[in-house]
Every structure is written in structure tokens, then in C-alpha cells.
Predict the 3D structure of the following.
Amino acid sequence: MSDSFNIVLAGVGGQGTLLAGKLFGLVAARLGLDVKVSEVHGMAQRGGSVITYVRIGKRVFSPVIEPGAADFIIAFEELEAMRWAHLLRRGGTLLINTRRTIPMPVALGQAEYPDNIIESILALADGGTSVHAFDAQRLAEEAGSVKAVNFVMTGALSRFIKIDKQIFMDSIQELFSGKKAGLAAMNQHAFELGSAIIEAK
Amino acid sequence: MRVLKEIFLGNEAVARGAYEAGVKVVSSYPGTPSTEITQAVSSYDRVYCEWSSNEKVGMEVAIGASLAGARAMTCMKHVGLNVAADPLFTVSYTGVSGGLVIVVADDPGMHSSQNEQDSRNYARGAKLPMLEPADSQECLDFTRMAYDISEKYDTPVMIRLSTRVSHSRTLTEIHEPMEQKLIPYVKNMQKNVMMPAMAVKRHVVVESRQKQIAADSSDGILENAYRVEEGSKDIGIITSGIAWQYVKEAMPDASVFKLGMVWPLPLDAIRKFAATVKRLIIVEELDPIIETELKAAGIKCEGKELFTLQGEYTPAMIREALSDNKNPLSAFDKSALPLAPGRPPVMCAGCPHKGLFMALSRLKAVVTGDIGCYTLGALSPTNAMDVCVCMGASVGMAHGIDKATDSEMSEKTVAVIGDSTFLHTGINGLINSVYNGSRSTVIILDNSITGMTGHQQNPATGRNIRLEPAPAVDLEALCRSVGVQSVYTVDPADTDASRKTISKAMKEPHVTVIIARRPCALIPTGRGTPEQVVTLDRDKCTRCGACLRIMCPALTKGEDGYPQIDPVTCNGCNLCVRVCPFDALIPGKEEV
Ligand SMILES: Cc1ncc(C[n+]2csc(CCOP(=O)(O)OP(=O)(O)O)c2C)c(N)n1
């Protein structure tokens, strides 16, 4: 698994999974690797559960990641971690933002938000699977915006893949070129904080 | 020369391909998953582009541009092609002057659609060549190629996309754009005026053109029309587009015949390929188009007896049907994980549609629905919709109910339709209702934007695709001018007033139109300010839950049972304030 990664970004409409997906696209381009980033647009963006697939490698075909084929899952929310955990391969890595976004049926009392999601995931994970849960929103706020959760999570992931950090930094710069250039530094900072939280563990 | 690569969505790559090919006019109507093509075109300054009022108009504008000698393109989603089918079938007869490309994006699996029809049926029906790219690079290359084919064979060329191609980013090599040409106009009635005498002769041309293209495809004269990938001779697979990606993933060793042009089929080349393999399998999402043609031509193959007619394919489906190859092993057994509660899409905080649907729900109205964000009115908590078929249909269906039933049912019936949808095809229905003495009530939900597809301008918003000022249709005046006697305007956030107006309009013995006007909460004119955020007076709140039942994403039930207002999401629409029986929710500052 040296130069091929399958990454699932699982979140809720509006959490910035699309932008994180695009960042990986830029990273792969800098590495000279093939890449596919599959996005969800339309109806599901209205508060629905959204999933972005990133595949990087010498040659990738299907833009969709099959169950058991994800090397990494970045879950922007606990419930979404549980919903998509079956995509993870044996020995894969699951990163979870512990902040909750309450789905409407739960807000109405028609369904329950399961307790102890992280514990049940840990209990079920087969040996070799690693799970890291942390409050990415706090780190994003520290960096300057709740909207930077996606870069905190990406920073955390970067600890697990052998890609030079500078490539990520340059790609973030590229992502926020032009009118949005002012946002690059803040998001790079969020990335650093995410990276550091894994080190601290 | 340095090779420039972009990480393009399939849709952005189509736009780039058209730009590189020197396209001059692009006219489309939005629709997921096709919308980003035309949006991306608008970033190329030298291309004229527009949001047309519907797909038929969009196609006709492109036909005019082609006739005048320019390269032109029109893009739409699969159901949009139904609307544009009339010009499609006859522009096949006239052919083109400047290259004409028609892009249609299918949505297998219905991520964002009301059906999953297969657009290849249209290429077959209209006898037009159709290309099907499998990734963004092919989107760009095939679009450029489509213009060459169009001008070489004097035919419109269709490009079929699907959601996974349109909405996947892959590395795409870009090139210098060609110059925009204008082929000098020559009047040619025999070719362009399709009256019976002329059309009879043009039909002959259409049939021989299609034969020629199929032959040139088979003979390898047409670049990219197909490609044979040699592999094991035990299984040969014929496939195209996104299904080809799944095949490569699942069956890396098989022999593959990849079609770039999915209509007309290169039957001679396929016959040769078939002779080299033991089993011939067709892998195509949705309809058995290739399979049916092959079987009719006497080429033995297997297809839909192995694969479904519904939804998207996966590598696992292909592996399981064709091989002993193992599917990957998951770290988690899905059935062991607790079931995650769903996240159905909901109307946004501050969505103006919600108040209106609450009024309809209170009135127990029979609602003929239409397509847009407001279709969510069919779900909880309002459940206020009885039928939804296609764009514009609400108006005609309400009229049909009026003519079919007694006055009680008729009075209870209202049509709801968005501003973009009304101007798309709703207005046609309204003219018909007035003319034929309907008593129906039509509510136009004017949120000043085409919301569902990601906020495109439309003829009622006062801006064009490049956000420059444009004339805005005066909806009230338009309705009056077609003969509607009662036209009312309400603020949908004021549920009570809206309900009273609707109730009054329902009883009137002629067509009434109610325009419920308030901008979408996600556009600048509709967005609330931090001062408008609602707050809670805990002393007055009895935790009755009335505010929670409106299902506003900004309102959740706190651990202590009190409603919690998320100040970032709250838009200050005050709908919750209006439903609170105890005045416990305090509105923010008035809008200025
Ligand atoms: C024939 C056709 N073209 C396009 C679409 C895609 N589409 C779905 S809803 C919609 C527009 C909705 O806009 P509007 O009527 O203004 O309602 P809003 O979503 O803003 O509430 C479009 C273009 C479709 N379903 N059918």
C-alpha cells in the first residue's frame, strides 16, 4: 500500500467533504499519480448523509470504493462513522470527529442517536484496525473557523500516509488561490493542528 | 511543451472540451447531474452562454446557432431530453452547419431524479451518433471529437454522461483552444425547412448517414469509437462509460471491447471480437441496448439474464456474476454494527417553502406537486403533497382534478410550483387552465432562484447566468395577462395570512394564482443576519415541542428538554416564533 490509497470522506451535507476531496486530487496530481474523486451533488446536499470517495494510485478505475476496500475513513461525524465503517478494509484506519450532528428523526424523537458509538466500533473492529477519535471542531475553532474541520481531519490523516507534508501545504495554497487566498493560512494551520493531535496520542 | 493537467469534474471537462473546440453558443437548462457543465462554460469569457427557460428552448437556441455556422452545445439531464425530444428528432433530419453537440446526463440509481430512463434510447430513436466517456479525460477528448464528427457527417452528436462520470474528478490534460469559426451562412430550404416533401428526402439521408457512421466506426476510421483490450479468451466483455470502469476493477484479466461510441454500434467489429472469445457478456447499466442489437444481429451473448435493469452497477456485482474473484474483506461486519438512523434531506433553516406547506397541511389540501426543493413538502412534518410527476405537471393535473370531480374535491385542490419550474413549463398549463374554464388554484413558490439544482438564475430573478442584470418576468402581470382574474401575493413565512388567502382563493369559481414570495434562505437576499437570530425565554417555555415539530435544522431538543437554537444555522425567519403557543421564542431584530 505504498502509493495507492482509498480514502472515504463521510459527513453531512455542508461539512466540506467536497473541498477535502478536491485537496486530495491536487495532492495526487503533484505526486504524478492517477486519482479519482467521486462527489455527491443535488438532493442529498440538503442536510443528508454525504460521502466522497478518493482513490489514488498508479492506475485507478472505478471512482467508487467498495465495502472492505477503504484504507482510510475520515468520518466528520460519529454517526456517519458507524454508517460507513463497513467500507473499511481489515487493518485500515478510521478517523472520527466526535462532534455530533443530530439527524432530524432523532431531533423529533422518532429515532435514537446510539450511545457509545466509538466503543461499539472499537469492540467490533478486528485486530489490526486502528480507530482514532477526537474533537476536530475544537481544533478548527482554534485555527479560526468551524468550517476548517475538513482540514483538521486531513491533517490527522496525513500522519498515516507517506506523503511529504509540504505537498499538502502547497496543495492547500493552490486550493485557495485567487479570491480566497486569505483562507489558505488558516486552513494550513488547521491541518497542522490535526496532524499534531495524532502525534500527541 | 509542458503538459497541463487539471483535476476536473467530468462536467468541467466537457465544458473545457467544448471551449477548446471553439464553441460559440451554449444554451441549457439546469438539471442534476448536468448543471456544472454550463456553469463551467460561463467561466470562459469568449463563449456566449445562457440558462434557457427550458430544455426545448435551450436546444432550439443551439440549433439556430449551428444553422448560423457557429459551434454550439446544449446540456441537460436525462428527463430534460424528454422536453427537448421534439426538436431532437427533426434536427437529426436537417443536420448542422456549425458542429452541434447535445449533452445528456443520466442518473442511474436516481441520486437526484424522479426516474432512471436510459438516454441511449433517444440516440437510437433519433438516429444520432452518441459518445459515452468513462472519465474526465474522455469527457474532454470526446467533446472535441464530437464537433469533428458533427461537421464531417452533417449530424448533431449526442454525448451521454452518467452521475459517476459527471461528478467524479479525474486528471485531465488540457490543450490550447482553437479559434471560434463561423461557417458562412447559405440558405438551403431543401435541407432546413422540414415540410413533408423535403423531409421525405432528408430521411433517406439520415438512414444512409447512420449506416456510414456504423461502417466507419467498425473500420476504425472513427477514432475512439471502440477499443479492444486483449485478455483471457474465456470471457469477452462489451461495455462502455462508467460500467467499463467497474469491469476493469472486477475482471482485470478479461478481454474487453470498450465502446466509445454507443450508437450506432460497430456490429462488424463486434462480430469479429465475438469470434475470439468463448463467452460474450454485455455489461451495460439500465436498458439492454447493446444486447438487443447484438441478439437481433444473431450474435450470441449474455446480458440482462446476469445483470439488473435497475440502478448502478458495482464491481462486486460483476465479480459475483462472472468469476471466482473474491470481493474485498471488511474490517466490520455491517450486520453487527448498530443501524444508524437515516438523514433524510430536509428543508433548510429559513426555507420559505416550509411555512407555505404548513399552511397547506393545516388546510388538508389535495396538493398536485411539482419538481424542486419544495417537493420536500411531501415529507414530514407537512406530508402535504398528493402527486408529483414531472416539471410543470402540477398545473395541468390540478385542472384535470377540477374537471373530473365534484366541487368539494376540486375546491380542496391546489397546485404548487416553483418560480423556475413555472417558467419552464408551468405557464403552458396555466394558459390551458384559464382557456378551458378551470376553477383550480395555483401557488407559485417564488424564492427568486432555481434552488434544487444549486442556485441558478432564471427569467424571474433579474440576473443572467453571469449574474449581470437582466429583465425579470413580472409573475403577477404575466398571470393576469393570460386571463387569471385573481392574483394574490403572500409572504409564506406568515403562515396564517397565507392560509387565509389560500382558503379564500380555493373557493373562487375561476383560476386563481397565489404568488408566495420570499427569497431562498441560501441566497444573499434571503440570508439572515446574526441580529435576526431567534432566542428562547426559558421562563415562558413549557417544553411542549411545538417548535421542534416544524423540523427546522436550527432547532434541536436539548438534554434538558428545552429547544436549542443554533445561532449559526438560524436564519431569523421567525416561523418557530409564530408556532410557539406561549410566546417563548423571541424574534431577533426586524429585517431592514
Ligand atoms: C425536465 C427537467 N429538467 C430539469 C430538472 C431538474 N430540476 C429539478 S428541480 C429544478 C428546478 C427547481 O427550481 P424552482 O422551481 O425554482 O424551485 P426551487 O428548487 O427553487 O424550490 C430542476 C431544474 C428536472 N427534474 N426535470
Remarks:
- DSSP finds eight helices and six strands in chain A.
- The longest strand of chain A covers residues 88-97.
